[in-house]
Specification:
This protein is about 25% helix and about 35% strand. It has about 120 residues and is an alpha+beta fold. The protein has one domain. A six-stranded mixed sheet has the order 1-6-5-4-3-2. Helix 2 links the parallel strand 5 (about 75-80) and strand 6. The chain is globular, with a radius of gyration of 13 Å.
């Protein structure tokens, strides 16, 4: 099953709205995400300027809660389902990382939480 990007239409709690310079930092830090980041534990994954990508932790099902933060506010939030994280093929791992980057950018634009679901070979 291919990857599916879904807008949950749930507003981000504590949302921070970046100005244009901050938005550039947010886009740059999102672009640094790799497949290996999806398997990391809670904590900061990357930082650029005023923006950082944090792994908030995992659900009971193993889904990764990844957020872009600025100060004390959340700019973007996405749930990356455990099934997405299970691929061992290098090309599909790049696809999973690119899908994560995409949903975080869409979350930043919409102000809502996004999900990345699906199963890759």
């Amino acid at each position: 099953m291919p990857l599916t990007k879904t807008n949950t239409n749930h507003a981000i709690r504590g949302r921070a709205i970046p100005n244009s310079g901050q938005q550039n930092d947010c886009k740059a830090v999102i672009a640094q995400i790799t497949f290996a980041d999806l398997g990391r534990g809670a904590g900061t994954l990357h930082t650029v300027g005023v923006a950082r990508v944090d792994m908030q932790g995992r659900t009971a099902a193993g889904d990764a809660n990844i957020q872009v933060q600025m100060g004390g506010g959340t700019v973007a939030a996405a749930m990356i389902f455990n099934s997405v994280q299970q691929t061992t093929d290098a090309a599909n791992q790049r696809g999973a990382a690119n899908g994560t980057i995409s949903v975080l950018n869409q979350s930043m634009d919409s102000g809502t939480v996004w999900n990345l679901t699906g199963t890759l070979p």
